[in-house]
Structures are given as C-alpha cells and as structure tokens.
Amino acid sequence: MAEKTIEVQEEMLEKELNTMLAAARKVLLAGIGVVALAQEEIEDFVNRLIERGEIAEKDGRKLISDIVERRKKQVEEVESELESKIEEMLNRMNVPTKADIDALSRKITTLTKKVDELKKAS
User: Fold this and answer.
1) Which of 5, 68, 71, 96 could form a disulfide with 100 if both were Cys (CB 3.0 to 4.6 A apart)?
2) List of the chain residues with pLDDT < 50
3) What is the Cα–Cα distance from 74 to 58, expressed in whole angstroms?
4) Where are the alpha helices (DSSP H) in the chain?
C-alpha cells in the first residue's frame, strides 16, 4: 500500500517537473527565435548599407560576423543563467532529483525484501 502511494507521488513529482522543464524550454526557444529574427534584421540592414556604398562589403560581412558571435555568447549566458535559476527553484521547492528517487526506491526494495524474510522466519 505504501509502495503504491510512493509510486503515485513519484509520478506526480515527475509530471510537475516535466511541465516546468517544458515551460522553461519554450521560453528558451522563444528567446532563440527572437535572436534569429534580430540577426536577420541586422543582416538586412548591413546589406542595405553595402548596397548604398556606405560601408565596404568586407566590413559589412565582418560586422555581421561580430554581431552573430556576440549574440551566440549572450544566448549561452542566458541559457546558463536560466538553467541555474531552474535548479535553484527546484531546490527551494524541495523537489527531489531522479537520483534521490532512485536511491529511495532501492532502499524501499531492500526493506521490503527484509520484511518479507522476517515474515517467513516468523
């Protein structure tokens, strides 16, 4: 009976965790979409400057390359920050990790076997 309760609780926690991670993933993908859109806008702008002769094509390509590199670094920083905040939030909520749940499951299995052995011995 207690084992089923634990399984139900584990399933509920896993669903909640999956829901939170899915939401975080959507936020991250939306951010990446914004960066991609901004990159396209920048490329269009630089291409117009090149067409007008306001900057050399070589300089324009270098400018685009530099901006893309900066954007990649920003995305990596945001991704890292988001990941650490999610971990921090899960810790504050006392959400057990998969390793915690697996360790408890092993302990429960061991205890169940011992109880069964004691019952047989009686």
Assistant:
1) 96
2) none
3) 25
4) 2-52, 57-92, 98-121
